[in-house]
UniProtKB/TrEMBL annotation:
<dbReference type="InterPro" id="IPR000306">
    <property type="entry name" value="Znf_FYVE"/>
</dbReference>
<dbReference type="Pfam" id="PF16696">
    <property type="entry name" value="ZFYVE21_C"/>
</dbReference>
<dbReference type="InterPro" id="IPR038632">
    <property type="entry name" value="ZFYVE21_C_sf"/>
</dbReference>
<feature type="domain" description="FYVE-type">
    <location>
        <begin position="40"/>
        <end position="95"/>
    </location>
</feature>
<dbReference type="Pfam" id="PF01363">
    <property type="entry name" value="FYVE"/>
</dbReference>
<keyword id="KW-0863">Zinc-finger</keyword>
<keyword id="KW-0479">Metal-binding</keyword>
<keyword id="KW-0862">Zinc</keyword>
<dbReference type="GO" id="GO:0008270">
    <property type="term" value="F:zinc ion binding"/>
</dbReference>
<protein>
    <recommendedName>
        <fullName>FYVE-type domain-containing protein</fullName>
    </recommendedName>
</protein>
<dbReference type="InterPro" id="IPR032031">
    <property type="entry name" value="ZFYVE21_C"/>
</dbReference>
<dbReference type="InterPro" id="IPR052113">
    <property type="entry name" value="FYVE-type_Zinc_Finger"/>
</dbReference>
<dbReference type="InterPro" id="IPR013083">
    <property type="entry name" value="Znf_RING/FYVE/PHD"/>
</dbReference>
<dbReference type="InterPro" id="IPR011011">
    <property type="entry name" value="Znf_FYVE_PHD"/>
</dbReference>
<dbReference type="InterPro" id="IPR017455">
    <property type="entry name" value="Znf_FYVE-rel"/>
</dbReference>
Length: 243
């Protein structure tokens, strides 16, 4: 599955030009679908400031949430990479702030994930570990682990993720899960350094849950940066699933 060509095509939607995968089934798991626009007849007033629309006060739809706004409340054009828009698109104030924060992930964290980090990897309850390089695939759908052996984890089949910090180990009360790590200090600069990751996932072709443990190898700084980026990626993944 991971060897499917990453072909792209340019399409035009009411919101603008989008560069999307030729096969929609292989879109990035971080991507979001375009919203349904609120019908014009259902929004006689701006959904932010309540200004009444007329021939002078025109209505505009936010490309991220699909709601109706006046020009003042929906004037910003911001990149929206999660919907694959080629150019910056019009967004309301609330959505534009979210999109601007996500730009950091695409500009910084995504490059870190693609570059990879080196970890000591243990599968299941095995006592045997292997030093492997872990990186995100170019289509963002898989984690590739390469060492003496090679295997892949499809992001959509990850059921849980725990980030381990210095001094923690699975089973302790102070282990930090995805939900408790969101926007916390544990993996930010100055906080406890992320030292590993514990994944539970279903291998392709199986419904049995497998455990994968990764611990930072020699270059702990690079590994910690990779884990921090993976934590941010998990936030986007969960948002996309809840859409």
């Amino acid at each position: 599955m991971s060897s499917v060509p990453d072909g792209k095509k340019l399409i035009r939607s009411p919101s603008g030009l989008r560069m999307v995968p030729e096969n929609g089934a292989f879109s990035s798991p971080f991507s979001l679908d375009e919203p349904q626009w609120v019908p014009d007849k259902e929004c006689p007033r701006c959904m932010q400031c309540d200004t009444k629309f007329d021939f002078i006060k025109r209505k505009h739809h936010c490309r991220r949430c699909g709601r109706c706004f006046c020009d003042k409340c929906c004037s910003k054009k911001v990149p929206l990479q999660r919907m694959c828009f080629v150019d910056p698109v019009r967004q309301c104030a609330e959505c534009s702030l979210v999109s601007q924060k996500e730009m950091e992930f695409y500009d910084k964290q995504l490059k870190v994930l693609l570059g990879g980090g080196t970890f000591v990897v243990t599968l299941g309850t095995s006592e045997k570990s292997e030093t492997m390089t872990c990186r995100l695939s170019n289509n963002h759908r898989y984690l590739f682990l390469d060492g003496e052996s090679h295997f892949e984890v499809e992001l959509s089949r990850i059921s849980s993720m725990q980030i381990l910090t210095d001094g923690t180990s699975p089973g302790e009360n102070d282990i930090h899960t995805y939900t408790s790590l969101l926007d916390s200090h544990f993996i930010s600069e100055g906080g406890s350094r992320a030292s590993g990751m514990l994944l539970h996932y279903k291998p392709m072709g199986s419904q049995d849950v497998q455990q994968l443990r990764m611990e930072a190898a020699d270059d702990k700084k690079v590994a910690s940066l990779w884990l921090s980026a993976m934590h941010k990626a998990a936030k986007l993944l969960y948002e996309a699933r809840d859409q």
